[in-house]
């Protein structure tokens, strides 16, 4: 297998934010020794989310097993929803900031699923995916 280095177009602040979440989570659950430190763990997750690298490719690039790469991504993804504000809090903030017309927008994020997984197969788009919805201001700022 040939290995290569690649760049991910995300800021260091993004890396530090997720790495901090992972460090606090590991400390809270008293996680045992891990193959990758929180920074490398975060980079693995961001590469998967941003570039769509497969778990096999991630495993080869970060020198872990494919199951470990999958487990690392799952661990980080479960921490992210806790960071997002709830609907009522976002709408309250919008009203406080003077945004009288918040915009609800959605898109389909394609994902790798088997055809038998019907709940993740919207026929309109003819591909597997999950619906992502965002509340934003008229200027596009995500609330």
3D structure, described in words:
InterPro entries: Transposase_HTH_dom. The structure is a single chain. This protein is of the alpha+beta class. The chain has 2 domains: 12-82; 84-136, no CATH class. The chain has 5 helices and 2 strands; from the N terminus they run αααααββ. The chain has helices spanning 12-28, 38-51, 55-62, 66-79, 87-96; strands at 103-110, 129-136. Strands 1-2 form a two-stranded antiparallel sheet.
List the helices and strands and how they pair.
Layout: H1 12-28, H2 38-51, H3 55-62, H4 66-79, H5 87-96, E1 103-110, E2 129-136
Antiparallel strand pairs: 1-2
Pfam families: HTH_Tnp_4
InterPro entries: Transposase_HTH_dom (IPR027805)
Organism: Actinomadura graeca
The ordered string of helix (H) and strand (E) elements is: HHHHHEE
Helicity level: 40-55%
Radius of gyration: 18 Å
What shape does the CA trace take? Answer: globular
Terminal CA distance reads 44 Å
Which strand order spans the largest sheet, edge to edge or round the barrel? 1-2
Low-confidence stretches: none
Q: What structural category characterises the helix and strand content? A: alpha+beta
Average pLDDT taken over every residue: 80
